[in-house]
């Protein structure tokens, strides 16, 4: 990354919230549940199923973690009431993973049962490498009791091919991502090509073990490399869909949809949009420069 972009990134947390919001809003449905449901309804009109995410992470304390579960239950109820095809996606540290793994597991259990009763799927998301072991333990503990729960795996991490082999046999649903967290070179690929190559190999290994895979990416070339694996499986057709982030590469969604793929859109909402939006902006240097110019009063954001 260029020196200027790096500098901009470091100063971003100090940019006034109203200025940040003007760019963050392309990645986030809004602050209220109604905003997320409106976005999902509008996506349904364009034949895109969705994923609903209550923004937030690194919650500590039982009361706060329980409050997050209640927010997720309301979101699940609203999805059912609106009759949209969507599922819920939850970060482990939003359910207090960093402070109590056992409470986090208990809360995932409660939410998984709530979702199962409404025929909804629940995704356990993956955060930075300090949480990977605990997240996989939580997921493995949920699997025997809940067929409606899936996990996320990151091709950036060198450990992931082994994690795929270590996961217990049985039905498996994985969202495969490159990984948004910048990780140390000892444990992670840091260059784009090895991350891509590892992604395609992980997808192959997952399909070999019969897993259903969500290809969560906006990398058209890499997705094509995954599609090129399909003939290897002959009549054992692998199960997959594409997943994309709200506000990112919309022209690609249409292209994939028109080619006959299911393209599911991730719709995050809630007042805690800053950390999520900062991670997204890091991927969009042009937008970063706009934010900085606006923060310095040198230009206006649209
Ligand atoms: C549905 C979904 C769920 C995810 N869940 C997780 C998770 O649980 N854990 C995790 O670590 N990561 C998650 N991610 C993020 C993922 O790890 C990647 O960081 C992200 O998808 C960008 O990588 P890419 O595969 O799209 O490839 P890239 O090479 O980063 O991008 C491909 C193309 O998309 C463009 N692009 C990508 N992001 C942006 C952006 N923000 N703004 C503008 N253009 C952009 C790039 O410029 C490039 O042209 C998720 C991604 C998706 C789509």
Task: Please describe the structure with a list of short key phrases separated by commas or semicolons.
single chain, 302 residues, alpha/beta, TIM Barrel, eight-stranded parallel β-barrel, 12 helices, 8 strands, globular, binds flavin-adenine dinucleotide
Helix/strand layout:
Blueprint: H1 3-11, H2 17-24, H3 33-45, E1 50-54, H4 62-82, E2 86-90, H5 101-117, E3 122-124, H6 132-142, E4 149-154, H7 160-166, E5 173-177, H8 192-208, E6 212-216, H9 220-227, E7 239-245, H10 250-258, E8 263-269, H11 274-281, H12 285-295
Parallel strand pairs: 1-2, 1-8, 2-3, 3-4, 4-5, 5-6, 6-7, 7-8
Brief synopsis:
The protein is an alpha/beta fold.
Shape: globular
Amino- and carboxy-terminal Cα gap: 25 Å
Tell me which ligands are bound.
flavin-adenine dinucleotide
Mean pLDDT: 93
The CATH architecture of the largest domain would be Alpha-Beta Barrel
β-strand number:
8
The sequence of SSEs as H and E is HHHEHEHEHEHEHEHEHEHH
Largest sheet: 8 strands, parallel, barrel
Residues in helix, %: 40-55%
**Rg (CA only):** 19 Å
Strands in their spatial order, largest beta sheet: 1-2-3-4-5-6-7-8
Count of separate DSSP helical elements: 12
Low-confidence stretches: none
User: What is the level 1 CATH name of the largest domain?
Assistant: Alpha Beta
Strand content: 5-15%
């Amino acid at each position: 990354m260029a020196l200027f972009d790096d500098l901009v990134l470091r100063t971003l947390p100090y940019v006034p919230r109203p200025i940040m919001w003007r760019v963050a809003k392309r990645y986030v449905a809004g602050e209220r549940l109604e905003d997320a449901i409106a976005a999902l309804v509008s996506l349904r009109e364009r034949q895109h199923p969705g994923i609903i995410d209550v923004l937030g992470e690194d919650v500590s304390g039982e009361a706060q973690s329980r409050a997050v579960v209640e927010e997720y239950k309301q979101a699940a109820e609203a999805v059912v009431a609106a009759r949209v095809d969507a599922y819920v996606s939850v970060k482990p540290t939003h359910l207090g993973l960093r402070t109590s793994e056992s409470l986090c597991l208990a809360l995932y259990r409660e939410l998984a049962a709530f979702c199962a009763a409404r025929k909804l799927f629940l995704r356990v998301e993956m955060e930075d490498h300090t949480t990977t072991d605990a997240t996989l333990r939580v997921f493995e503990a949920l699997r025997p009791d809940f067929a409606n729960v899936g996990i996320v795996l990151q091709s950036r991490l060198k450990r992931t091919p082994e994690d795929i082999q270590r996961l217990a046999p049985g039905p498996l649903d994985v969202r495969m991502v490159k990984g948004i967290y910048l990780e140390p070179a000892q444990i992670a690929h840091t260059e784009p090509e090895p991350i891509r190559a590892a992604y395609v190999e992980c997808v192959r290994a997952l399909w070999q073990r019969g897993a259903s895979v969500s290809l969560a990416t906006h990398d058209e070339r890499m997705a094509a490399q995954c599609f090129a694996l399909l003939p290897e499986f002959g009549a054992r057709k692998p199960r997959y869909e594409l997943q994309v982030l709200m506000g990112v590469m919309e022209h690609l969604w249409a292209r994939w949809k028109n080619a006959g793929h299911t393209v599911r859109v991730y719709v995050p909402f809630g007042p805690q949009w800053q950390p999520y939006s900062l991670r997204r902006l890091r991927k969009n240097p042009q937008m970063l420069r706009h934010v900085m110019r606006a923060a310095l009063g040198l230009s206006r954001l649209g």
